[in-house]
Each structure stands twice: as C-alpha cells, then as structure tokens.
C-alpha cells in the first residue's frame, strides 16, 4: 500500500516530469528537433516580413494601405462568424485608425521574429510574438498557415530551454541570467 503524505497548505510540492516531456523540453539531445522546427518557422516569418518591408504599401510611401485594406476586409466579416464582434470593435476603433503604425509593427515584427528564430536568439520570446501575430491573423479570419505556425510556436515556447541550444541562446541565456543548471543523471535520482 502506498502511503500518501499530507502536506501543509502552501508547502511546495514538486511534480516530476514524465520521461518523454523531460527529453523533449529539458534535454539538449532533443535540440535538433527544435532546430528544424525553429528554422522552418523562422524562414516563414522572415520571408513574409521581407515581402512586406520591401513593399511600398506596407512600409514605403503608402505605408498602411495594405494593412488597412486587410483589416477593412476582416471588419466586413464580423457578422458572418469569421471574426468575433469584440475583435471587430478593436479593428474599427484601434487598428484601422492607426493602420500605418500597425503596418510597420507587422512588417518589422515578422522580420525580427524570423531572424530571432533562425539564429536562435531569445527563442521562447520570438515564438511568443510569432504566436501572438498568428492569433491576430486568425481572429481577423485568415486561416492559411496560421494554425500550423501557431502550434509550432507554442511548442517552441514550451521548449524554450533547449530550442535555442543550436543557436545564440546557448550562450545568451546564461549571460542574461537565466537560472540554468546542468543536472547529471546521478543527481536526478537523489
């Protein structure tokens, strides 16, 4: 019979990771998997962003034109069920009046997220902002590759400790003060 020890309220209880989760999200031997996903996602964001940054309708003389047309199209679909009403309010009262600002944010955000993922610098943070853009596009009624990109971004956020191992995070996170410690197999058993 297993004896269950009662803990006092507020006492810390540590729940161990299962072997699969430990391997995928905490072990550097899985870093090659995250490298492949990171490069795929980073390349997608970078290419989408470069297309916008070099477009006159996004960041040039007519900055804001493309994003305004896109958002007005999304606003027109509010009653159809593709775009939630609360998001329609946000588009109408915040995003469309500031289309030029949003145009630069999207274009350069995509480029920076792409670069960050490709070089493996602040991978978890870059994946978060990529996922944020994916959710924004999905809420505006654009499906395309956004669900797949969102899932990969969430996985990269979960694997932030090892996702940038083959990248700049290997050095940058320890310099920035991330509380990493190497756990030897014999230490885990103790």
How would you describe the overall organization of this protein?
The protein is mainly α and 190 residues long. It has eleven helices and no strands. The protein has helices at 19-26, 31-53, 56-59, 65-76, 85-95, 99-119, 123-139, 146-158, 160-163, 169-175, 185-189. Helix 2 (31-53) runs antiparallel to helix 6 (99-119).
Keywords for this structure?
190 residues; mainly alpha; globular
Task: Count up the helices.
Answer: 11
Q: Can you give the helix content as a percent range?
A: 55-70%
- Give the strand content: under 5%
From the alpha-carbon coordinates, what is the Rg to the nearest angstrom?
21 Å
The number of distinct structural domains comes to 1
Mean pLDDT: 91
Summarize the structure.
The protein is an all-alpha fold. It contains eleven helices and no strands.
